[in-house]
Amino acid sequence: MHSRQIIYLIIALMIAVFFFTGCRKEKNGQLEITPEKTDSPEKKTSLFTIRYRPVWTAQAEFAGVYIAQKKGFYYDKGLNVIIQPSGINYPPYENLQQGYSDIVQMSLLTALKRDAEKGNLINLAQITQRTSLMLVGKKSRGINSIPDFEGKKIGLWKTDDRLLSLIFLQQNKLNMNIVDLDITINLFLKDGIDVMNVMRYNEYHQILQAGIDPEELFTISFADTELNIADNGLYTTREFYSKYPKQCRDFAAATLQGWIYAINNQEETVSTVLEVMHQHHLPANRPHQKWMLNELCRDITIYKNQVGILQESDFNKAKKILTDQNLPATRQTYKGFFPQ
Amino acid sequence: MKQRQEKRGLAYQIIVFIFISLILVFAAFIGITRILFSHIMMDNAKETVSHLANETIYQIENRLTKVLDISRTILILYHNNHFERKKLDSLLHDLVYEFETLEAVTIAYAPSSYQKGYSRTIFHSQNKAIYRELQPADYQYLDWFQIPFELESKYWTEPWYDANATKETVISYCIPLFAEGKCIGIMRLDTELSALQKIVSPLKLKHSGYAFLVSSIGTIITHPADSLTFNESIFSLAEATNDKQLRQIGKKMINGDIDFVHLQNNAVFGDSWLYYAPLITNNWSLGIVIAHEDIVGDLNLLLIIQTLFSVIIFLTISLIVYYRTLSISRPIRLFMEVANKIGQGDFDAKLPSTGNSYEIDRLILAFETMQESLKEYIQNLEITIEEKNRIEAEVKIASEIQRKLIPENTLHPYGIQELRCYGILEPAGDIGGDLYDFFPVDKSHFLFVIADVTGKGIVASMTMTMVSTYLRTVSTYHYTTGEIMQNLNNFLCKQTSASNFVTALLGILNLKNGKLEFSNAGHTPLIIRNIDNDYKIISETHSNPLGVFENIVIGSAAITLEKGDEIILFTDGITETLNPAEDFLELKGLENIITELNSTNPEQTAVQILQKVHSFAQNTPQKDDITILVIDYKK
Fold first, then answer.
1. Residues 259-318 of chain A whose Cβ lies under 8 A from any Cβ of chain B
2. A158 and chain B: CB distance < 8 Å anywhere?
3. CA atoms of B72 and B78, how far apart (whole Å)
4. Set of chain A residues whose Cβ sits within 8 Å of the Cβ of B158
5. What does the pLDDT read at residue A37?
6. How far is CA B7 from CA B4, B11, B12, B326, B363, in A?
7. Which of A235, B189, B244, B418 has its Cα between 20 and 30 A from that of A32?
8. Helix crossing, A312-324 with A108-118: angle to 10°?
9. pLDDT by residue (tens digit) across B342-352?
10. DSSP secondary structure string, B510-563?
11. pLDDT for the residue A27
12. Has residue A25 got a pLDDT over 50?
């Protein structure tokens, strides 16, 4: 009798241990944002789960999603959104095609280029309407104009985000030693490279936060050149979209609602972003996230009353940039690519 | 009446004076102390803080240079044994095990045409050697590999978390490996960051001082506020608080500068001082923050004590002064009361018996003397006044007697029908020096005289009395005016002092025939006014004033009066009457008055003349007696 009880107890303990460890594994890497609103339990049971993967680690670049999650905008649409782990090891396009994610975030140029492969990408919403990409060089390294780039070392991300920079070099007929970069700006700070590609909302400000003043830098902002095209967008596959068009549209609408809230409540949004970053043990400081959100807000609201709309001109321009460079490009039409 | 301003008391004035003086002295004293001591304290604080910083830097550098030293050994081992990987691994593990400062050693090769590249990390964990290999994709773009590889120089990394091997936050010393002059890979030596943090974190200074580490790009590596560590850089803090000074300080810190700066009301550090100095080995910077309050706290305490002492000294002095001045002002108040009593006539008011200072004693003496003098003076004054009153009374009596010597005005004096007389004597003082008289010498002769004794007062009055009496006596046996005057002159010369002489006009009128004999001894002219209101001035004199030269012969003149003629006699009090413009009336003025007369008897003539003289004078005070005598003949 006693031994049997002990066995039951052990089994129960094992189940409990298994349960807890299992839970932990599931949670691992996924973003936990507790919604402020909880509606009736009936609604909760009928929630539609969407797995969303950002293009980069948690930061204000995805503030709209965090806000939509926190404020229950997804929940209100009957969606259970899982914000998946992200970063250099989680390339969005591959994740999407391999079925690890339902909706991903990518730049327009990357999407159009990668869509040449399968032609099944659907743009659900165009978040940022212009590129934040810049090239920066230190004046102390002799970079005072574009011709000064010639023969110097340039650091470019090893991802598709380098495309626009490469096109720029080609257009300007610049021969530069390209150094592949991963995530940090330290090689640039330590003078391992002379020029580097940066996002105005992120790395550019990181450079300023490393004690380099704007006056000490030579910068080219692609937004001011003919290479200015829309950047971040929400993408899914045609297959997923055909199956769940309403949910896809609801996700996009709730995300944009999150962004509009973020634009109107920047301080609160920055606090939310910082909470998320701390959950992920990512180094974060408020001025940087504030800068980033401010930049993003400007990029999102370029066209009045057109938040989230992919402009046909942008679609065509991006496609032309690719084809002009003999790079693969989507064969889809604007309407097929952005079936609003 | 103008209100007299109430003055503050002596004690109040002295205390205020001392208070102001003390404030100035103590303010200067405290100010100078503050300036001098704040410099000294700042220097001391800087010295203390720099010692502490140098010691801390020394400890950190000690650890870092140990890593550098080991790196040389490892490099030699590597070059000697890199063909024998197992042996090298074993040697490296022994070193990692041996040196507490060394957390792990990594040798990483870049992919190249002749090898695909790999990295191998050797560390010791749970009592065994662990070797962890990674593919180039996993490390190629990490700072620890890429930066020294691109720079082809040694490099200290920023703190980073080695998730693949040791699972520790470390900083790494990375050395490029060369083969045939070409960089082929990186050797990395990790040392635990926490060991460095443990050196810096416990540093405490005074109440609130602390230390923090900043990396070569400004990232905060250690800070008492954990939330800042790795999240913030000195520049992000500057940006968050919009603090340009802090940004400049950050730039200097990562530039390897040394300084001791005052951060006034800084949003991050408060009102504090920051000392920063570089770590030479890896270009980090150590900052030590100490609250301004902590540095100057002792000085402020000293100043507070000084101020308290000042207040106590002031209060003590004030009390002493107050009681001391009270002991001075008390007798002074008493003096004041005594002075008031004396002012009200109480000369016997009692003075304080003794003061408590030399000056007060002198004052008491001076008051006593003054009291005595005043008493004596008042006594003398009383006697004098008594005397004066007595004299005044006597003068009044004399005046009465003198007045009685002058004949009374009656229409026909002594019942003489042939003439009428009227005289007026208006003395300038109680008793005068003028005289007129008339009386019959016999049945047919009538004598009249008008005289003026020079000078005034009692002497003149006595002289006049003598003249009057003597004339009455002498005229009984002398019948000519010259003789009478000569007699009178001789008498006066004998009786009076030289200073008193007499002018006189004496006439004897024959009542039967109107013949008038007269002698003028230095007197004003005689005026004869007839019935038609014409007049004649007879200025003839027969002698100097009487009483000057003895035994002189005095002549006389004679005229015959018509019926109705008026003899007008007067003294120089009339001609020397002053008006407000200080002009004399003079004889001419009198002539004008006489021309305008409309009198019909001597009284009217005399009164009208006097009225006109008064109206000329217009209340101007007169110095001389005024005398008029008018006689008319058989009108």
1. 283-288
2. yes
3. 10
4. 186
5. 55
6. 9, 12, 10, 16, 22
7. A235
8. 70
9. 888 787 778 77
10. ETTT-EEEEEEESPPPEEEE-TTS-EEEE----BSPBTSSTT-----EEEEPPT
11. 40
12. no
CB atoms within 10 A of CB B332: 14
Query: How sure is the predictor about A75, in pLDDT bands with cuts at 50, 70 and 90?
Result: very high
Residue A58 in contact with residue A276, Cβ under 8 Å? yes
The position carrying tokens 């996993």 is B138
Interchain contact A180–B (C-beta under 8 A): yes
What chain A residue is nearest to B156 in terms of C-alpha separation? A190
CA distances from B402 to B449, B459, B571 (A): 16, 12, 17
For position A172, what pLDDT does the model report? 92
Mean pLDDT of chain A: 88
A179 at interface of B, judged by CB pairs closer than 8 A: yes
Give me the sheet containing A232-237, strands edge to edge.
A79-83, A48-53, A103-107, A232-237, A121-126
Q: In what order do the strands lie in the sheet with A153-157?
A: A177-181, A153-157, A195-199, A133-138, A217-221
CB–CB contact A189 B150 (8 Å): no
Contact list, A208 vs chain B (CB under 8 Å): 235, 239
**Per the CB < 8 Å rule, is B231 touching A283?**
yes
Alpha-carbon dihedral sign for residues A237, A238, A242, A246: positive
Nearest-Cα residue of chain A relative to residue B230: A283
Q: Which residues contact B159 (CB under 8 A, 6 or more apart)?
A: B169, B170, B171, B193, B215, B219, B221, B230
Partner residue opposite A209 with nearest CB, options B140, B230, B233: B233
B interface mutation test: which of A138, A177, A184 has the most B CBs within 10 A? Answer: A184
Residue from the list B141, B230, B239 with its beta carbon closest to the beta carbon of A209: B239
Confidence (pLDDT) at B156: 93
pTM beyond 0.90, yes or no: no
CB atoms < 10 A from the CB of A73, how many?
26
Nearest alpha carbon to residue B169 among B111, B206, B215, B234: B215
Q: How far is CA B112 from CA B115, B139, B183, in A?
A: 5, 15, 11
What are the Cα distances from residue B511, in Å, to B66, B610, B634? 167, 28, 9
Q: What is the ipTM of this complex?
A: 0.84
- Give the pLDDT score at B430: 67
Give bridge partners of residue B426 from the DSSP assignment: B626
CB contact A181 to B (< 8 Å)? yes
Residues of B with CB under 8 A from a CB of A: 140-143, 146-147, 150-151, 155, 158, 217-218, 230-236, 239-240, 247, 250-251, 254
Residue type, B396: K
Confidence of residue A21 (pLDDT cuts 50, 70, 90): very low
Contact A186 B230 (CB under 8 A): no
Which of B146, B233, B234 lies closest to A187 in CB terms?
Answer: B146
pLDDT band at B294 (very low <50, low <70, confident <90, very high): confident
For residue range B171-230, list pLDDT tens digits in order. 999 999 998 889 999 999 999 988 888 888 777 776 778 889 999 999 999 888 888 888
CA angle B481, B483, B488 (to 5 degrees): 95
> Quick check: B627 and B571 in contact, CB under 8 A?
yes
Residue of B nearest to A287 (CA): B240
